[in-house]
Request: fold
Amino acid sequence: MKLVYSREGGLFPQRAHTEVQSADLPADLQKMVDKVLTQPDAYQPVSANSALRDGYQYRLDLTEGRKKICLRFDDLNLPDEVQPLIHFLQQRTGKP
Amino acid sequence: MKKHVGCLCQIIPPFIIDELKKAGVAIPTNTRTISREFRERRADQLALRSSQSALVTPPTKNADRFVYDSNTTQHQRLLLVRKEGGAATVDPIVNTVYENAGIIREYYKTAFNYLSVDNHGADLILNVHFGQNYANAFWDGDEMTFGDGDGEVFINLANALDVAGHELTHGVVQYTAGLTYQGQPGALNEHYADVFGSVIKQVSKKQTAATADWLIGDEIMGPSLQGQALRSMKAPGTAYDNPLMGKDPQPDHMNAIYKGTGDNGGVHINSGIPNKVFFLVATGIETDKAALLWFETLKTLKPTTNFKSFKTAILKQAKKLAVAKRVPADTETVVKESFLAVGL
Reply:
C-alpha cells in the first residue's frame, strides 16, 4: 500500500511532503494504516474549523490497487489514533 | 433532540487521563469541573452576544487569562495551570505566556480602549505545550495555542511576545473586520497580526520605528538559526534563508505578488507587501500614530477587502484622523508615497 502525506499551513508558509510504502512503516503503524483502509469513515473528521489561523492542514492519501482513500485533517480534528502516524510521516519530511 | 441521559461527561478523554496517571500527573476533579463550567459559560456568552438584547447592553467581562497545559497532547484546555490573579507556577513557559497576554491586553486597552479580542472582555485562553515537538502556534476562533517547537528550527513558541501578539490579533481581526482567510483579504488578516505583534513588541521594549528590528519571531528561532526570523516587515523576503526552512518567499512589491494556490492563496506570503507599507508609514509618522491609523481603519474594513480597497480605506482614515489632529498633518501624503513604493 502506498501512502502520500502532505502538510500545509503554519506560522510561516511551508509545504511538507513524503511518500512511503506501508511495508516500510513500523509494525504498529502498519496495523493502524490497515485499519484506516478497511474503515475509512471512522477516521473522517467531523468538520473543519473555518476560523483556524496559522494552523496546519494535513492530507493523507492511501492507495492499494484500485482502492483510494483521502483523509484531510487540521490541528483541531486530528484523531488521537492517527497522530503517531502523522508524527512519523512528518519526521520523514525533514521539515519542522 | 435526544434526551441527555446520565453519563460521565468530562473535558479530558478517559484514555488521556489514564496516560496522565501513568505519567504521574494528577488531574484534580475541580480542574475538570472548572473546564466544563468554563465552556458552558462561554457558550452562554456567545448566545447572549448574538441575541437582540446584546445589541442594547453589551455584556462586558474582565478579559481574564486562563493558561492550560496540553501536556504534549493535541488536546486544548486539558489542565488549567494558571488563571487570572493566580500565583506563578514552576513552569516558566506558563508564566511567560500569562505575562505576555497581560501586556497585549493592556496595549489594546490603553492604545485603543479595546478590551480583549472582542471588545467585550472575553476571557483569554492560552494553551501551552501543545503536541509533540509541535513547531507552531495558532488561533482557532476561540483561543490561542502554542507548541514547544522542535528545538532545532524553533524553540518554545509561547516565549515570544510578538508571536502571542500575532495570534491574539487574529482574534481582534475576527471580531472587527472579519477578513476572510484567502487571497488578498487573508494576506491583510496576516498583515494585521504581524503589525500588532511588532507594535506591541516595540512598545514593550520602548523602541521607536527607527530603533526597532521589525522582525517577527526572531526570539523563537532555534540555536543554529539565531539572527533569522519568520518575517521582516522592513525587508520582506530576507527574514530567513537556510536548508531547514528554505528561503523567505515574501514579496515587497506588487510586481512580485504570489498568484499560486498554496498557503490559502499566499496569506503568509503576500502579507509582505502591506507589511512593507506599514514599516514605511511608521518610519514617516512614528509607530504609535501608524498603529492608531491601522486600528481605526481595521474597524471599517469588509471581510473581502483587497489591497487596493485597503489603500482607499487607510487614506480615508488618514484624512479623518489628521483633521482631528490625532496623526500628523502630512500623514495622507506619507501613506500615498508608501503605497506607491510597493506598486499600489
The interface with chain B takes residues 8-15, 49-56, 75-76, 78, 80, 83, 87, 95-96 of chain A (CB under 8 Å). Residues 16 and 90 of chain A are 7 Å apart (CA to CA). The two ends of chain A are 26 Å apart (CA to CA).
